[in-house]
Amino acid sequence: MPLIELCLPVDRPESVGALHKDVAEMMAKAFDKPLKNVMIRLCFNETISFGGSTDIAALVKVKSIGKISTEENKKYSKVLCEFLESTFQVPPERIYIQFNDFERCNWGWNGTTK
Questions:
Q1: According to the model, what pLDDT value does residue 54 have?
Q2: Could you tell me how far CA 78 lies from the centroid of its own chain?
Q3: pLDDT at residue 94, as a whole number
Q4: Alpha carbon 86 to chain centroid distance?
Q5: What is the pLDDT at residue 1?
Q6: Coil, strand or helix: which one is 21?
Q7: Cβ-contact 2, 33 below 8 angstroms
Q8: Where are the beta strands (DSSP E) in 24-107?
Q9: Which of 28, 50, 58, 98 has its CA 20 to 30 A from that of 8?
């Protein structure tokens, strides 16, 4: 049940539906999870400063039940940084990624918890 949030200081693209699909497919593959279990949240027009500068930067939050570890996080970080650099020209050194591993009892879905 991964949830990936991308927050960027750019205008919402017209092709936001295709962008959601691309990110969801990319992260489903990275997590080795079915696409139906992946949630994506894209936040545009965010005010972000990094190192005292408002040059383009990104904040990414990756939340999941399991599949969060030192080695897996390195893989996710690489995939996300490459995507953000190629799609929005965000330099990898201006991207922070926060990883959170949730216990099943702390993740609600479909009227219950996992």
A1: 96
A2: 12
A3: 98
A4: 15
A5: 85
A6: helix
A7: yes
A8: 39-43, 58-64, 95-101
A9: 28
Verify whether residue 13 is a known catalytic residue. Answer: no
Structure tokens at 75: 């893989």
The amino acid that residue 29 corresponds to is K
Contact in structure between 94 and 49 (CB atoms under 8 Å): no
66 Rama sector, left if φ>0, alpha if ψ -120 to 50, beta otherwise? left
Contact in structure between 96 and 59 (CB atoms under 8 Å):
yes
Q: What pLDDT shows up at residue 114?
A: 74
Provide the 10 A C-beta neighbour count for residue 90: 25
Q: What's the full length of the chain, in residues?
A: 114
13-27 residue pLDDT tens: 999 999 999 999 999
- pTM, two decimals, is 0.94
Instruction: For the chain, list residues with pLDDT below 70.
Output: none
Beta bridge mates, 7: 43, 59
Which ranges constitute the DSSP H helices of the chain?
Answer: 16-31, 70-88
Catalytic residue, chosen from 2, 13, 34, 91, is 2
